[in-house]
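CORE FACILITY INTAKE
Project code: CF-77B
Contact: R.S. (postdoc)
Sample description: multi-component assembly, two entities in total
Requested service: structural model of the whole complex
Turnaround: standard
Below are the sequence entries exactly as provided by the requester. Do not edit them.
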Amino acid sequence: MSEHQEQKGSATVSQGDGKPGDAEAQRAWKERLTDLLGPDDRRTNRSGLEVRALYDPNDWDSSRYLEDLGYPGEPPFTRGIHTSMHRGRPWTPRLVVGYGIPEDYNKRMHHLYELGLTGLYVSPCNSHMRGYDPDQVEPVLLGTCGTLIATKEDMDLCLDGLPIDRESVALGDTAPYTLSALMFNVAKDRGIAWRTLAGTSTQSDYLSHCAALGMFFRIPLDAQRRALLDHVTWMNETAPRWNPMSVVGQHYQQAGATPAEAMGFALSAALQHGMDLVDRGADPEAFLARFSFFFDVSLSFFEEVAKFRAGRRVWSRLVRERFGVKSAQAKRLRFHVQTSGADLTRQQPLNNIARVTVQAMAGIFGGLQSLHTDAYDEAICSPTEQSARIAVATQHILRDEAHLADVIDPLGGSYYVERLTDEMEEQILSVIRIVDEAGGMFEAVRDGVVQSMIGRSALQHQRAIDSGEQVVVGLNRYVIPESEDGDEQVLQRPDPERIARYLDRLKHFRETRQQRPVQRALDELARAYESTDQNTYQAVIRAVAAGATHGEICGRVRETVGFGNPPVVV
Amino acid sequence: MNHRGKVLLTKIGLDAHDRGSRIVATYLRDAGMEVIYTGPWQQIPDVVNLADQEDVDVIGISSLATDHALVPGLIQALREAGLGHIRVVVGGIVPNAEADELIQAGVARIFHPGASRESIVQEVEALAAEARTTIEQDHQA
């Protein structure tokens, strides 16, 4: 007996709650395993952590259950942010939807809403993302990746008959935040009180745009920082159910960051935004309760589950340490998840349905609040009606047929998942330390530190695929001739005549509105950006109300603060 | 003059997804080619000017949205500038039907998602050699 006790205390066996004798049994099993697999059997996950063949009670100190896991709805939220999680409140199925002219978008959104896609999402055309009106770019690029939106009239058509007073609306909105200003003006015209509007400005995190996806980068970094703080301040005061701060981890991971890096960067960015708000005198208990997050979920199933569990734990402790917040609401990591398009293949595209299903399961077991499942044709074109329908059905199958919403955090207590959650936590914290040492996320992004780390990880992952170490079915293994993939079903480009009619309508809108109030409101907007104390978002709301278009607003802001481009870091 | 070829990698149009083009830039550089890499949103006249000044053999356009629809215009502009020898390749998400149109418009090669490192390096290198042969023949003629 004393011999066994000695072994339990020795360095080879960690602090776990294994019974005396376990160490001997473990050693014997390991020997048999090494005989079978050889001494060089070593595997790692995408975050670079070693993945062993087996985990046992020595890997998890269950006596720390309350401190490290706790109960759902209680800090540190490892098992979920709500008391009843998906059992009481299933996640919201929400798909990025954007296509054609506003009427095309509206038709597609109604169709998906009837199929059970309760989360509304307005994804604007790339022309909009770049800060232009549709008549300022090449017509051939219009309406293929998002819907055309320039005016309040357009937004009204997009949302025609959709219950924005009951369902939450996600808007792909960024500085100077015209998209939400368009929607808020539409709501006002419909008699819906702003304080009742629920939704998210999904692209408000300019730091992720600067480091990982320049699509939304319209004005210089400093001006974006100010515009965001104005947007958050205005929304918190005026529309308390709106999430003006959506911290995006998804961009980093899609650009090539590992899951641990993506979580670390996102939390560092959130700390930066929080610090900036505190500097303005905002109350962290209030603004943190409205912070939301947006993450990618890859095919690395257990790693992703652990990423989300660890992310919740890290965030709840970080905000307590750095902002001194006490309420549970201010410590919750609430998040939307999108399945990773980078894991999908153009080869044998129907295989992507299986990939998306596994990704979605990782996100669900990771405790997400809303979910976008990619359409299987993501690597070919924007979703067709059929592929979008399958993406929605995948979520319903997982929820209602496979019953994944029944049990909260069902992988909690698995030796492997708990150990991996601890290890991912360490990795995430080490990324946050690197960013802290660089002076915080604003400086780390401005100086290219984050971009360099992402570039390295992207290359490493690609090399693993090139060498075949990371198998991709149909790409580097189990390849079939392309002719056997079947006919490619591609979303038709918008009808040029419909685009032309839209452009006529936009011209008519500009010509027939009252011009003087528009000019006055744009002048006010410029003055707000020149001032240090006026709220720039309030000026955007007023400019839209006066009839200014998205492109006019972005143009005027650019005249005032300059035209920003993210730095190129290779 | 780099004997393995000089390549301009860029993005025109509205999209900014650059994971692929950055990796391709590294591949070509590691293979000994000279690579000029720009940020996204380049205008066609600027791309033509840069290609001319830098005397590149190949222009690689990365397209993850629908920006490849602008590539026939780029090829036209190159020809008008007397740079018709420059080979233009496209990498990214291009549906088959649109790929056929691009080839007809003069695109030398389209690399779809999953194109191997070897194929990209070998083919770009071969196209660079072709471009130089073409221009030498033009000079002799």
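Facility notes:
- Chain A has 23 helices and eleven strands.
- The interface with chain B takes residues 126-127, 129-130, 137-138, 140-141, 144-145, 213-215, 217, 254-256, 342, 345-347, 379-381, 455, 458-459, 462, 466, 472, 475, 488, 490, 493, 565-566, 568, 570 of chain A (CB under 8 Å).
Invoice: internal transfer
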